[in-house]
Here is the input.
Amino acid sequence: MVLNPVLGKLVSKRVVLASASPRRQEILTNVGLRFEVVPSWFKETLEKSSFAAPYEYAVETAKQKALEVANRMHVKHLRTPDVVIGADTIVVRSLLWFSIVLIYGKCRKCLLSGKEHSVFTGVAIIHCSSKGTCLETEVTDFYEETKVKFSDLSEELLWEYIHSGEPMDKAGGYGIQALGGMLVEYVHGDFLNVVGFPLNHFCKKLAELYYPPSKHNVQHKKYDSIPSVDTFENLSDGESDSSNFTEHKGASKLDSSGMLSESAPKLPSKILELMDGFRASKALFVASKLKIFDHLKHRGPLKAVDIANEVGTSVCGTERLLDACAALGLLEKTPQGYSNTDSANAYLTSDGEYSLHGYIIHSNDHLWPLFTNLESAVKEGSRQNHRAFGKKAEDLFKDYYHSEEVKQRFMAAMHSIAHLTARDVATAFDLSRFKSACDLGGCTGALAHELVQIYPNLKVTVFDLPEVIANTSYFQPSGQHMAPVTFVSGDFFKDNLPEADLYILSRVLHDWPDEKIHVLLSRISAVCKPGSALLVAEIVLDEKKTHPLRAVLQSLSMTEGKQRSGSEYKQLLEKYGFTNTEIKITGNLLDAVLCFKKNLSP
Ligand SMILES: O=c1[nH]cc([C@@H]2O[C@H](COP(=O)(O)OP(=O)(O)OP(=O)(O)O)[C@@H](O)[C@H]2O)c(=O)[nH]1
Here is the structure.
């Protein structure tokens, strides 16, 4: 990881990208940064004339985007991130600012044609901490300018480009990374800055923040180059001291001009990370299965020998597992022993409010055996239950519910994800106009409970198979002021659906083949009155169907269902009489799609 050393400083932090831009996500993912995406709701409406220079507007907008997310996460989601990154890209020519105006005005002139323009991206890096209930923020911001010149462009070419759809959602109305690249004569400066994120400047800023000049590095007045640190070995050490800067064994060296020396091996860090990914997943699964995080939550710091005695494992094996967890940033290791990181306490303990324990155990016991047969799955194009579990897959859910133990495990897994995503799904749209909702396949009622909290006038019914409904009591929230949720058992493919003016399908559609979806959506459409709505919670793929990665990887389970893009959901829902579809990419593990039953024609 010599190429992006300073990013290692963010490894143990909860980093949030406050941007919906898939390009920004890709630029940062490509260099190995791990982060959550929480798109900002800040409206880009700052008064341009109040800024002395265009870049000041971009910087301020980036800052407001990031602050809005930091505040929302702190207040609404009770999850304070460590670092929030916001960005805003604008295009400026002769002090004219462009949004999507490739072709301009009545004379249909392209204001960029044959001319040089500037692309500014403002970036804000917000470090957050909570003091009691207050959020404290430290803002670092900067901007980068890149000059771009377009060739002389014919009107025909421009219209063809506009009709390609690419200009939509891009600063200046072009995408230099794709078709728009054909319009460009030259680029002076950072190409990625034009695409939406000035990566090089960002790394230099992190270097300034995390490696302030010391006696070891005074010769580098400014960070003209990114300092080299061997972060591959030290991914978990977010706070290690600045001696990393020059001292690490195996690190590449800076030459006198501050550049990485030629002799530094250029490791394909992303590929290496993928190669080791299965080891990391399995280490997490085993530590979760052994309930190591639970033991440490109540008793840490503990030595390996004590943990081994408690969980009944070998001392040497346990020590290696604990070290692996520390290297992965899940545990902290000190001379006193091992203890949980904050995120292990929140997400990996089985009783944590937003525990992922259930889903992790499901991943280990169910998904892992399926994925070890991925090669056969790809060759045969089908699920591999017969190889993984010695019996053919029947109905997806009947498989889960054949034994009490598997059913509990599956319900705990579904509950983990539903609980973690419920707030974002419930608030993706304003649902206050609805009086009654029915969550079809709503399982433990995690989303239903969130809905009644947020919309006190909403009555929510959870409709699921009798064997599920019989097991929901364990998952019900405690608290006297909980508004009631009604549980009704039935099969949504066969039985009468409860009446409601909002139906919900959360993580249902991606599981079923087209014939089953046809039955389900026809039945919902038949009971839905005009003006009633359907809320679908799924991961929405981008139109290229390569993002988000989680959805693309989930597809490899080879269920008969599939993941869909926004336009595919729109098309599918339209077929069953649902229109005015709105899609909200939430930045959480599930996105939200809301559509309305068409009024009958007069
Ligand atoms: O050549 C290219 N130029 C610009 C882009 C993309 O354009 C947008 C810029 O818009 P903005 O900074 O407002 O960011 P949004 O996409 O609206 O997301 P936020 O949630 O951060 O507001 C940006 O996506 C660039 O990537 C491009 O792709 N090519």
